[in-house]
Specification:
Shape of chain A: globular
Number of helices of chain A: 8
Order of helices and strands of chain A: HHHEEHEEEHHHEEH
Number of strands of chain B: 0
CATH topology of one domain in chain A: Beta-Lactamase
Largest sheet of chain B: none
Low-confidence stretches of chain B: 1-6, 640-650, 665-768, 784-856, 858-939, 954-971
Distance between the termini of chain A: 62 Å
Radius of gyration of chain A: 18 Å
Oligomer: heterodimer
Helix content of chain A: 40-55%
Shape of chain B: extended
């Protein structure tokens, strides 16, 4: 008998909200996870899926530099502080030394991190394992284009000193883990209106 | 640049950021941040802080928190800031709280009120700010507080507000689906919104709704199709274009939805065929985003009711992906292949070499994806190769999560497709040896059961053979220094059960080994328990066979040690063993029959054999038995009374009768035989033993049911062997196309439609010639064993061979592997020099990773007897590069190649136009280079310069590929 990992763990963890995520074909075909302290790690993984009943969404977005310093971190799923640090550390370790020829996708626990490097900055975005990777890769690029437009020729320092603006731009671009607006023009206009107030 | 001073922050803050940036160690950074926290704590509580200053403090708190420090002392100030009237401050306040607080934070309740107020604001920017906060902060309990207002905002005049309201509702749906189910009509209405942004946002909740319940949305198929059509025809405003693609993100979302709606629904699918075909045709395959849309199209096509034409297009795109140099595209290609295989199992064969390349790629992501594909295409003919590969990979990685996954996949495949008992045992041994502690206990039990039961055929001989081969391999493996506990349990059980069965090994030899196991794992009680039980079995079999048992001294000392063990379970086992040793042969045979682990144990639940005993007792005046439920009912009542009234003062005499003796003892003692055998059979229930003796009746019944469960488990398991997963191959639809295009191809004409196919066809050939190792692998993965006459040199015969039997094309490659190496020079007929090969030459970086392999050695190996080459190559992840070199050598050794190349070049150009050209900055740049790579490898500076300027013209931020630009970017 095979236990689809999702169901078993979900029923164990408290935040089962009735509507369990459908076991994706990929995950259900494999892993049996015993209910065993050794798999505590796996339980933690499922914190990602925690209170949200559906799986296709962005879990978090990270901007990190080569040294692993976080330049921006936006989580769309609730995580403990300590868990966030672990995530940031792990993601950095995963992406920083990858050969530039390799895919821009890395498996991260039960999810997938799609990353892209711009100069010394890594933009990483964590999504569901079955989502369209290339689309998210371009989503990162669109975000960078928006930043570039907004800061007119963006550099890392712009982001460092104006991280709060970057958050605001991100809020216009991605909301609640979904792309809400894909028109660069619309976003820039919205930001312009906010800027006028300053 | 120049923005550092221009954003209204104080010098103090800029200095902070700067000093953090310059910090040389984590410790220094922490020191600076801690100072900052102290300072903020002090200042933020001062009275009458100017608002602007306060705003900066809040931003600094965000910064501190982002660096991983706790800023919770300031949360309340951020909350307060959301109350402010100034939009700027309010926005900052909302930003800070959405970053600080999770949906279940206590402070949320203080914000809900503000949010409610702000949602009603006249200023739409305030409303937007509030809606952004709603998405993050509103939890299940507070949804009702804001829901009516959010719904009202769906009709707001500003599209930005409508869009955010939709997203907020989507979030509500995710949090608590029932909260918004009555609003579904609103989503449908918003789908027709004038603003494409709102329409695009509406697709998010609709996707979720549809995936939860497809049937209620079938009426929307035509709407979605017409929206997609309009998007694809560039009817949306230009501002939604991205890299010359019309609103690609919206297209992708629509395709996802169509995939859901069309799945298993022929009628709905037929609506989609035209638009999907259009997208396949129009999509720009030179940019990442174009490929993303194409990939989504493939996903959609493979999910809806199949259309041969669309599947052809999908296959074509897939093969382009697979042939790309770009790893991302290869990755997508593998995934697309996996999806298409569900519809057409034969499609993988065409791409076998590409798949093998990916399998041997140093990029783990790609490799894992490929394993996923292989897992799906495993059948009994290729299971050995695939599982071997998987195990090799499993051994090489450290990531426990993936190791577990791949181990269980190996087990699954082995159980399903194992070609022979021997192979199965060997495979399981490997899996257990390297990932024993990661696999599920069930796997171990399955293995034991399998060895015990045999493979279902009634041939006792093969079963015995299986068992003795298992015993032999286990005895060999036992000499390994470190084995996972789970594996040792299996070994002990099998040795105990079958160690002496075939008479090859003496009982003392086996018991000696088992003693060693127990001694080597002093802290593992379970293994020790297994070992001692196994020893008991061996001894029992010996006694039953009438031989005298002489316990080895180390065995005796083990028993002595265990009988004094802290674990009552081990004690019990030790005593049982001693008891068994004292019995005579006849008794032992009945309690421990040899090879009886599969016998069903009749559990006489009613204990009828005790009837006479009970009768006797009753006659002697004993109390009759009261069934447990009746008894416990009585007890409960009396207990209640006890506790409620008397318990507190109950230190005096007790007037109620003591509880009736529970029947556990009577249950257990008279029936020792079932109990003992239950321990043997259900090792997992052993831990209940000690508890059982301590606790009373309930547990003993548990053991009983445990035994029956066990019986059930033994019977109810189906045999999995040889069950075919894939239907017999159906002639692929694409092959018929192939034969015609091949003819065209040989003439050097490149029509657009046939073109890519030609390339694919050609490219495969020379690669196949080059690496016998790969060929072998390919053959074993994809093909059967039927051999084919070697007619390759002539392209015509080639064609006919394909014509005649497309399915057996792979075997040909396979069996010819030895011959091909020698034939290589002749075979490289002009036309077969493939563009992709040249492309491959352009990727020297792959070669960098495998400097240990000498191309010339490879060359020798390839030209020499094939076994040499395969031995040099075996197991490495690397072979991609050298074979391509070979191709070059092969070509140059041919006279008259130059003409062929000249023929080829235009073809190349065409294909490149298809694949690359006008490549956006995001592209990996390899394709253009490839043009010149036929003569020269390495990146071409001129190209990159051109691209650079192109990118600048477009106002596009250049990507990774242009280091110069980054310097610019950084100022």
């Amino acid at each position: 008998m095979v236990y689809p990992a999702h169901e078993q763990v979900q029923s164990l963890v408290l935040f089962d909200r009735g509507d369990q995520p459908k076991a994706e074909p990929r995950s259900s075909s494999s892993s049996f996870l015993a209910l065993d302290p050794r798999f505590l790690h796996t339980l933690i993984i499922f914190l990602f899926a925690s209170s949200l009943s559906l799986s296709k969404m962005i879990r978090f977005i990270l901007l990190q530099n080569r040294q692993g310093k976080t330049r921006l971190a936006k989580y769309y799923v609730p995580l403990e502080e300590s868990e966030k640090h672990k995530v940031e550390y792990e993601v950095h370790r995963l992406v920083v030394n990858r050969d530039p020829k390799f895919t821009n996708f890395v498996e991260f626990r039960t999810h997938k991190v799609i990353y892209r490097r711009y100069a010394g900055l890594f933009f990483s975005i964590c999504v569901d394992i079955t989502d369209n990777e290339l689309a998210y890769l371009e989503c990162i690029h669109l975000f960078v284009e928006i930043l570039d437009h907004f800061f007119s020729n963006v550099c890392e320092l712009d982001l460092v000193f104006n991280f709060h603006k970057v958050y605001l731009i991100l809020d216009e671009f991605i909301l609640a883990g979904e792309l809400q607006e894909t028109s660069k023009k619309a976003i820039i206009e919205r930001m312009g209106e906010l800027e006028k107030l300053e | 640049m120049g923005s550092q001073g221009g954003w209204g922050q104080s010098k103090e803050f800029l200095d902070l950021v700067k000093s953090i940036g310059e910090a040389r160690s984590k410790a220094e950074e922490d020191r600076i941040v801690l100072n900052e926290i102290e300072m903020l704590k002090r200042r933020i509580n001062e009275p009458d802080i100017p608002k602007k200053k306060m705003k900066e403090y809040i931003i600094r708190l965000v910064y501190v928190e982002m660096l991983g420090h706790d800023a919770s002392f300031g949360y309340i100030h951020a909350v307060k800031m959301t109350h402010d009237d100034s939009l700027l401050l309010k926005r900052t306040g909302y930003l800070a709280v959405t970053l600080f607080l999770n949906e279940d934070h206590d402070l949320i309740i203080l914000i809900v009120n503000t949010i409610q107020k702000d949602l009603k604001s006249d200023n739409y920017l305030v409303v937007c700010a509030a809606l952004t906060a709603v998405c993050k902060l509103i939890n299940e309990e507070t949804i009702p507080a804001v829901l009516p207002q959010v719904v009202e905002l769906l009709g707001h005049q500003k599209e930005a507000v409508r869009k955010k309201a939709i997203m907020a509702l989507h979030r509500f749906y995710q949090r608590s689906p029932s909260s918004v189910t009555h609003l579904i009509s609103n989503f449908r209405k918003r789908l027709c919104d004038n603003d494409p942004g709102v329409m695009g946002a509406t697709l998010c909740p609709l996707f979720d709704l549809i995936s939860a319940d497809v049937d209620s949305y079938k009426d929307l198929v035509t709407s979605f199709v017409s929206i997609l059509k309009q998007v694809a025809e560039r009817r949306l405003p230009k501002s939604y274009d991205y890299h010359q693609m019309p609103a690609p993100f919206i297209q992708i979302r629509l395709l996802k939805i169509l995939a859901l709606l069309g799945s298993g629904d022929k009628q709905a699918s037929e609506h989609m065929y035209t638009v999907l075909g259009d997208i396949f045709r129009k999509c720009d395959s030179s940019s990442n985003i174009g490929n993303a849309v194409l990939y989504e199209c493939i996903c959609c096509v493979s999910s809806i009711h199949p259309s041969p034409k669309l599947l052809d297009s999908a296959a074509e795109v897939t093969s382009r992906f697979l042939k790309s140099d770009n790893h991302n595209l290869k990755y997508l290609g593998i995934d697309a292949l996996r999806r298409l295989m569900k519809v057409n199992p034969d499609i993988a064969e065409e791409h076998q070499l590409a798949v093998i390349d990916c399998l041997e790629d140093p990029d783990d992501t790609l490799k894992r994806k490929t394993f996923e594909l292989l897992f799906k295409m495993t059948k009994s003919t290729n299971v050995e190769v695939i599982v071997d590969r998987m195990i090799d990979y499993m051994i090489s990685i450290n990531d426990n999560h993936y190791k577990t996954e791949i181990a269980s996949r190996c087990v699954e495949l082995a159980e399903q497709f194992a070609p022979s008992n021997h192979w199965f045992i060997q495979t399981m041994n490997k899996v257990f040896e390297h990932a024993g502690d990661l696999v599920n206990v069930k796997v171990a039990h399955n293995l034991m059961r399998l060895i015990a039961e045999g493979f279902g055929d009634d041939d006792e001989g093969t079963d015995n053979q299986l068992r003795s081969s298992a015993v032999e391999s286990y005895l060999r493996i036992l000499s390994e220094p470190k084995l996972p506990s789970m594996f040792l349990q299996v070994i002990c059980w099998v040795l105990g059960e079958y160690g002496t069965a075939d008479g090859k090994f003496s009982a003392s030899y086996i018991t000696g080994k088992l003693c060693d196991v127990a001694e080597a794992h002093p802290s593992d009680d379970i293994v020790k328990a297994y070992a001692v039980t196994a020893i008991m079995k061996i001894c029992a079999f010996e006694i039953a066979a009438g031989r005298k048992v002489e316990l080895l001294p180390e065995c005796q000392s083990l028993i002595d040690e265990l009988s004094a063990s802290h674990s009552t379970d081990l004690q019990q086992r030790a005593y049982e063993l001693q008891a068994v040793l004292g019995l005579d042969g006849h008794a032992v045979e009945s309690i421990m029959p040899a090879d009886a682990s599969c016998e069903d144990i009749e559990v006489d639940k009613s204990l009828s054999f005790l009837n006479s005993y009970v009768q006797q007792s009753l006659e002697k005046g004993a109390q009759p038995y009261i069934p447990e439920n009746e008894r416990s009912g009585i007890l409960n009542i009396s207990n209640f009374r006890n506790q409620d009234q008397h318990e507190s003062s109950a230190h005096g005499l007790r007037f109620e009768a003591y509880e009736l003796p529970k029947p556990s003892i009577t249950l257990r003692t008279p029936a020792p035989a079932p109990a003992v055998s239950s321990t043997e059979l259900v090792p997992i229930s052993e831990p209940t033993y000690p508890k059982e003796t301590n606790q009373a009746a309930k547990l003993s019944t548990v053991t009983d049911t445990g035994a029956t469960e066990l019986k059930l488990r033994l019977e109810g398991v189906q045999k999995k062997w040889g069950k075919p997963t894939y239907s017999t191959p159906v002639p692929s639809t694409s092959s018929s196309n192939l034969k015609t295009t091949n003819g065209v191809n040989q003439l050097g004409q490149a029509t657009l439609s046939s073109h890519s196919r030609d390339v694919s066809y050609d490219s495969k050939r020379p690669q196949a010639e080059i690496s016998p190792e790969k060929q072998k692998l390919a053959a074993s993965l994809f093909g059967g064993s039927s051999s084919k006459p070697d007619k390759k040199p002539q392209s015509t015969s080639h064609k006919t061979s394909r014509l005649g039997n497309p399915a057996s094309e792979k075997p040909q490659v396979a069996t010819a592997s030895a011959a091909t190496t020698e034939l290589a020079p002749q075979k490289t007929a002009p036309v077969q020099t493939p563009p992709p090969d040249l492309l491959d030459l352009g990727e020297p970086t792959v070669g960098d990773t495998i400097p240990s392999i000498d191309p010339f050695k490879q060359l020798e190996g390839l030209l020499g007897p094939p076994d040499v080459s395969s031995s040099t190559n075996s197991g490495t992840v690397s072979v991609t590069q050298p074979p391509d070199l070979m191709a070059l050598y092969g070509d140059s050794s041919l006279s008259g190649v130059s003409s062929s190349i000249s023929n080829l070049v235009p073809t190349n150009l065409d294909s490149m136009n298809l694949v690359s050209s006008s490549s956006s900055a995001a592209d990996h740049g390899g394709s253009k280079v490839a043009l010149s790579a036929s003569l020269k490898k390495g990146p071409n500076p001129q190209d990159s310069l051109e691209k650079d300027s192109l990118a600048r013209q477009l106002g596009v931020t250049p990507s990774i590929q242009n280091p110069n630009l980054f310097r610019d970017l950084l100022g």
